Amino acid sequence: LDFVVNRQAHPAELTAPANQATVDAGRPAFRWKRQDDNEEARIEVARTGAFEEIVAASDWDRMETAQLNQPLEPGQYHWRVVTRKGNASTATSETRRFTMAGQLAGTRIISANSIENQVNLYWNQVDEAEGYRLQLARDENFNDIVEDVTVEETETRLQLEPGQRYHVRVKGLATDPMTSDWGEPYEISVQ
Questions:
Q1: DSSP letter string over 49-110?
Q2: Would you report the helix, strand and coil content of the chain in percent, each value rounded to 5?
Q3: Cα angle value 78/59/21 (rounded, 5°)
Q4: What would the pLDDT profile of 48-77 be if each residue is shown by its tens digit?
Q5: pTM (two decimals)
Q6: Which pLDDT score is estimated for 191?
Q7: Which residue(s) pair with 139 in the sheet?
Q8: 76 or 25: which carries more pLDDT confidence?
Q9: CA quadruple 117, 118, 123, 127: dihedral positive or negative?
Q10: What is the C-alpha to C-alpha distance for residues 85 and 165, in angstroms, rounded to an integer?
């Protein structure tokens, strides 16, 4: 009497992150569902959907979640789960793409020097910034914006009305998936 044992692996069902998702954390969490409790799974992350160069992979395990040990650099990635049953059969899930967002370092105004009604404003250089956005406002909440400009350098010159108080803030600019926040507001005035 012979027995036939089903040792065929089945593709896992990917649950998170969703296809085309943007992930903010440097170490994203991945979730999937195995079709058979006797299967082991391994997650693979690569820069391309062809998986020629895998940048991260887990060990074989019966878990249905994984989180990377090291953070990923900002950019586009693809992920999939390979399942195996025994040592003979493997199956590969669908492939999903996700974007790792990144955060530019903060911008800090270093100094503001005034000569009559002109103010020379200087701030720190931010790595990976392709330019800077500067806002000048009459109020500290930036509801009454006087000037909103984009510049390439870490300095600018502003013509201001004497006797007025202004608030200025700067942030670095970069292409997706990089983002940035406004630096601390800086109060300036000319006499």
A1: TT-SSEEEEPPPBS-SEEE-SSPPPSEEEEEEEEEEETTTEEEE---EEEEE-EEPPPP-EE
A2: 0, 50, 50
A3: 25
A4: 999 999 999 999 999 999 998 888 888 899
A5: 0.68
A6: 77
A7: none
A8: 76
A9: positive
A10: 71
